[in-house]
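During the first year of the project, the team set up a workflow for recording each protein of interest as an amino acid sequence followed immediately by a discrete structure-token representation. This format lets reviewers and collaborators read both layers of information side by side without switching files. As required by the reporting guidelines, we include two representative entries from the current panel. The first entry is reproduced here exactly as it appears in our internal archive.
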Amino acid sequence: MAQHSEKAKAKLHSLNAALESGALTQVKRILNSGLAPVDVAHLIESSPPKARKLLWELVDKDLEGEVIQHLSEELQSHFLSDMSAEEVVDLTADMDTDDVADMLQQLPERVTQEILESMDHQDRARLEAIMGYPEDSAGGLMNTDTITVRPDITLDVVLRYLRRHKTLPPMTDNLAVVNRQNEFIGILPVSKLLVSDPQQTVREVMTTDSRVIQATQHESEVAKVFERHDLVSAPVIDASGKLVGRITIDDVVDVIRDEGDHSLLSMAGLDDEEDTFAPALKSSRRRLVWLFINLLTAFTAATVIGLFKDTIEQIVALAVLMPIVASMGGIAGSQVLTLVIRGQALGHISNANINWLLRREVLIAGINGTLLALVISLITFLWFGDPYISLVIALAIVINITFAMLAGAVLPILMKAKGIDPALAGSVALTTISDVVGFMSFLGLATLIVL
């Protein structure tokens, strides 16, 4: 495996060198015979826009389908938008149905309809079955390449039926057992099929307590089921119990990766599909929205400081110490916010344990706030020699850490209840709360105690 990785790196290095020197014939040869499609896709995504266009044009037509399915949604949409309906149909001919559906859902409805009309009846019916479900549901994630068998036939008949196939669908670890109405009954594990008496019936060998996914189930819930039960594949059924497809682990890995990217980028106010090499103007527009929101929150904090400008003018030390109070509250709150968002993603947090969680955070805030207040007040006294300012900052630290930690626990819960993504908006709201409470408590106490 390591040897294969080193060979791939060496080929990528050779390709980059050829690309820089302008040796396009050599680049084309390496792209189409020297690299795996996933490595070609990685190279395209790692290149600036002009180089991307050139590399894509050098990929052979018969390899485009394998390469494009490894690209980000934004790049897929960009390349597909330049193709005719017939070209897209040819490109997706050998692709899994769920991957084709994902790509088509990125295109305008008019273009998608034109592409569907260009397909044969069977392929169109499979695609429409998937596209009838939301993209982030099990139905939108599933594939329709499921092999089904009836419960009353023998295993020998099943084996002869399988041998008629040239290949089996990827990751076929079991066969779905259905009745004549296509209602799901259970699964026949391939491992049992191979070691059991061929004269036994499917009903005698099949498993009826297998994990089944509802087509309307959210993809994040599907990922949890796969993770919890170590599944390789799982059947998908509709509301009436009929088998409509199956989900495999490779699709679930994509969901887990996408959710990780979403959480990471959302914390910084970035879009899920943020492209490392996107044009400057495009990236600027995406980032500017959250920068403006942060600007508004900054002015809110500045307004609070402005209310106490006379106090700051009389006691210069307050201006020096203010950032400490806001910073400590922000960090303490961020720790809790991250923990709660992760707990929500894992399904650990519910109405049954919210109160316990809040009580625990209050206790932690009391312990950490008191210890930090003692350290900071001692340093402040040694620095400025004023016991009253030391008292003020100690009280403000305890107040702000407590409020910030409670906000970090409560905000994700409230946002999720209101249908707001806490990963996207939680950090902005928390920063505002910790800044406002920190400045208000510190400067307000200074006005009351010191002056």
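The second entry, processed by the same pipeline in the following quarter, appears below.
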Amino acid sequence: MNPAEMVGPQALPELRAKVERILAESARQGATACEVSVSIEQGLSTTVRQGEVETVEFNRDQGFGITLYLGQRKGSASTSATGEEAIRETVAAALAIARHASEDDCAGLPDAGLMPDELPELDLFHPWAIAPEQAIERALECEAAAFAADPRIRNADGTSLNSHQGCRVYGNSHGFVGGYASTRHSLSCVMIAEGEGQMQRDYWYDVNRIGEALADPQTIGRQAAERAARRLGARPVPTCEVPVLFSAELATGLFGHFIAAITGGNLYRHASFLEGALGEQLFPEWLSLDERPHIPRALGSAAFDADGLPTRAKHFVEQGRLASYALGTYSGRKLGMPSTANAGGVHNLFVTHGDEDQAALIRRMGRGLLLTELMGQGLNLVTGDYSRGAGGFWVENGEIQYPVQEVTIAGNLRDMFRRIVAVGNDLEHRSNICTGSVLVERMTLAGS
């Protein structure tokens, strides 16, 4: 097979050569600086429902994006075609945009001296030799296990298996060219339970760089069924102010809001409630949040950021204090600060946790809400005000009493962060943010 047609490490030399050709063409056409990202991806996706195959899809995509500079003027263009004529035309289009753009003192590549000399091997590429027939069989097996788990499971809303592999190379006119191949595989199941005059829907899933390391289909199916069935009989609760325990899979979103608030783009646009908060005590002293970008096979690992800068381990929160913003080159210049190598996002965040599991945190909470579902986008990042539709389970005397629905939880993120009482050891590993369940001392719960 032609290396250009392969999606894996074999494709890297050809993609690197393509990046170098694009950089050379940009210089030939008059760009003063240039950066290029070239990628090729392919994947298999299959979905079944009620014992029948709904979709089987195979996709393959490739293309490149180019950003070039004429002094302090910037132009960007992209295409899915990668032939020589497409390269020339795309470079010309980016140059035309740059000629009409306004000058921006913060535009441009990172300093040449910041480019990495070596890149760590992160072992991100694990292709899964699974045929469409095998993918369908696993998905059907998962759904069958869900139907068998509880007689109240009467319907299915789709069980999907996805396998993806790709290759990406980034380079710029400082001479840096870096690339990697990666894989991502997942199996998810969504089921519907009927009983007590209600229909309730819930799900479960797993995701991994290694397909064979996914949880087995029966386990995922049973978990989806059990989660759906236990929600039957849900009802609202009276308006009150009580502790709220965010389940681990929802707690990742809580810290995701924090990362959004310390991201450079929101800070320099004055669109974050944490603008100017560097060094402030935001969380309890026992809580830290650090980034570990070089963990082999982890979902969020990366050797370099979207600017080509080498990633590094660091604290965003240290002993409760905001220790660092999350900045790329451009946002750092806008704020008068150096890049933290977070252009394009953060990589493998870990939150300090204790020794208690979720059941122990429920006992510690005593009375309140175990939160297992959030709805809507009720977050004002400028003020930190937080209000979202919610569902879960009501807790009395440290024990779950009944499922809850049609309620709203509300607070302010500054207060919520400060009122975190504990983080459990039931760590969520399927996300870029690794945290356990999070117990917040007090929130407003609006119900019936």
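For the second entry, the following points were noted during internal review. The radius of gyration is 24 Å. Confidence is low (pLDDT under 50) at residues 1-5. Both points are flagged for discussion at the upcoming steering committee meeting.
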